[in-house]
Automatic annotation (TrEMBL):
Residues 7-106 form the Semialdehyde dehydrogenase NAD-binding domain. GO terms for molecular function: NAD binding; oxidoreductase activity, acting on the aldehyde or oxo group of donors, NAD or NADP as acceptor. SMART domains: Semialdhyde_dh (SM00859). Pfam families: NAD_binding_10. PANTHER family: OXIDOREDUCTASE HTATIP2. The lineage of its organism: Bacteria, Pseudomonadati, Pseudomonadota, Gammaproteobacteria, Pseudomonadales. This is Semialdehyde dehydrogenase NAD-binding domain-containing protein. It comes from Metapseudomonas resinovorans NBRC 106553. InterPro entries: NAD(P)-bd_dom, NAD(P)-bd_dom_sf, Semialdehyde_DH_NAD-bd.
């Protein structure tokens, strides 16, 4: 069954994927309102509601009905500054967004996780992503979609040498290990938002690429 969500919450609208997703949402004729809290102001749009400030401070102030919530939050340990700071964003803040979205009436939560997410992983990054997925599933969402992209490709505001090098190789890998463009991921996320499928759905990178064509 296909839905037509009209009221959207988008966390992470200034990130690589979030920017593409925001542009798509604001150009969808069925979307009446996009609630996108950010640290810096976004360009004005008649369907955009843009509270400005630290997300953790803004969450309790968010108001209005939400049909579907997207969480495009994500950092790296280097960007965050420490493992604890990384966990605060990629686990704790994601869960805070989910709780607030549920309070506002959202029935479908769509989150960007990562390829290899596993709470038992010896790799700290994958472990935290896995813990985030497990905690979201424990919230018993009517509909929870977990996207696990491989390396995201596209122009970033900050230079990441490791990702630039990895992208040269991941572009040619088979299946779910191949890199995925942020624009394609955003298209896939919107298509997933239009589908009604009760329970938890985990979408790996190869399926995300197919949906994002």
């Amino acid at each position: 069954m296909h839905l037509t969500p009209q009221h959207i919450l988008l966390a992470g609208a200034t990130g690589l994927t979030g920017e593409h997703l925001l542009d798509r949402l604001l150009n969808e004729p069925t979307v009446a309102r996009v609630l996108a809290p950010t640290r810096r102001p976004l360009a004005e749009h008649p369907h955009l509601q843009n509270p400005v400030g630290p997300l953790a401070d803004l969450l309790p102030q968010l108001q209005g009905q939400v049909d579907v919530a997207f969480c495009c939050l994500g950092s790296t340990i280097r960007q965050a500054g420490s493992q604890n700071a990384f966990r605060a964003v990629d686990l704790e803040l994601v869960l805070a967004v989910a709780r607030r979205a549920r309070e506002l009436g959202a029935r479908h939560f769509i989150v960007i996780s990562a390829l290899g997410a596993n709470p038992a992983s010896p790799v700290f990054y994958n472990k935290v992503k896995g813990e985030m997925e497990r905690a979201l599933q424990a919230m018993d969402w009517p509909q929870l979609t977990i996207a696990r992209p491989s390396l995201l490709m596209g122009p970033r505001s900050e230079f990441r040498l490791g990702e630039r090098v990895a992208a040269l190789f991941l572009r040619w890998l088979p299946g779910k290990y191949r890199g995925i463009g942020a624009c394609s991921l955003a298209r896939a996320l919107w298509r997933l938002a239009l589908e009604e499928q009760d329970g938890v759905r985990i979408i790996e990178s190869d399926e995300l690429r197919r949906l994002g064509r």
